[in-house]
Write a structure and sequence with these properties.
By secondary structure, the chain is of the alpha+beta class. The chain has 5 helices and 8 strands, in the order ββααβββαβαββα. The chain has an 8-stranded mixed beta sheet, sandwiched between helices. α1 (48-59) packs across α2 (74-86). The radius of gyration is 17 Å and the shape is globular. The two termini are 27 Å apart.
């Protein structure tokens, strides 16, 4: 998306002064949200070189089977991160929970990526994927808090009118989460690597689940 789509509010390049002497500066957070029960969630751009090893462990974990990267080696993950970083219609963001990397979010333009020829994108449509890091001790409500944060950062841009997703039909856990934040299933579609539930959520539908009917 990048220059071809609305930027997330607050986005700025990282400053070299934010790192210690001789250290690589981490990209600055673009968005933060405080959850009343779980604390602070933030997102920053993925750094392909610095983040590839961490993300390799996430996307190849058995719980990430629907991410479709189970067989990728480290080099392949870094290459994919670099490809997304260079793509004008696709972005990747590392999510932090109380300062610790905890989830991954991708944003894409459905008029140019993923759903071309399948979904008729309308102005203000934004595509999204998200993945939580594997955890040894699950935290109740954590994944919903992550998804709420993802939805809030997307709708923080006033140009975003509707979020579009295409989860695997077998991913029942995500279907329940999507419904909880306001997504409506349109239909089942066939994509190259999966059958998916094409679903959308407008700003109004999301706010209604938050008790906000603006």
């Amino acid at each position: 998306m990048n220059e071809h789509s609305p930027r997330i509010p607050g986005q700025r390049p990282p400053s070299a002064t934010e790192a210690g002497h001789g250290e690589r500066a981490a990209p600055a957070p673009l968005f933060t949200r405080t959850d009343p029960a779980l604390g602070e969630f933030a997102l920053r751009p993925v750094d392909p070189a610095a983040d590839a090893a961490l993300l390799h462990g996430w996307v190849t974990h058995p719980k990430a089977v629907f991410w479709l990267m189970q067989d990728c080696d480290l080099a392949a993950v870094e290459t994919e991160c670099a490809r997304i970083a260079a793509d004008p219609f696709h972005d990747a963001f590392l999510g932090l929970h109380n300062g610790t990397p905890a989830f991954l979010m991708e944003r894409y333009d459905p008029a140019h990526r993923e759903l071309v020829g399948i979904h008729t994108a309308e102005p203000g449509d934004v595509g999204m994927h998200f993945l939580t890091a594997p955890a040894t001790t699950p935290v109740p409500g954590f994944t919903r808090a992550v998804l709420t944060t993802v939805m809030e950062i997307l709708f923080a841009d006033p140009a975003t009118r509707r979020v579009v997703v295409e989860p695997d039909t077998r991913n029942t856990a995500v279907h329940a989460l999507n419904e909880a934040v306001g997504f409506e299933v349109l239909r089942t579609v066939s994509l190259p690597a999966k059958d998916a539930r094409l679903s959308t959520c407008t700003r109004e539908q999301f706010l209604a689940t938050r008790g906000d009917h603006r």
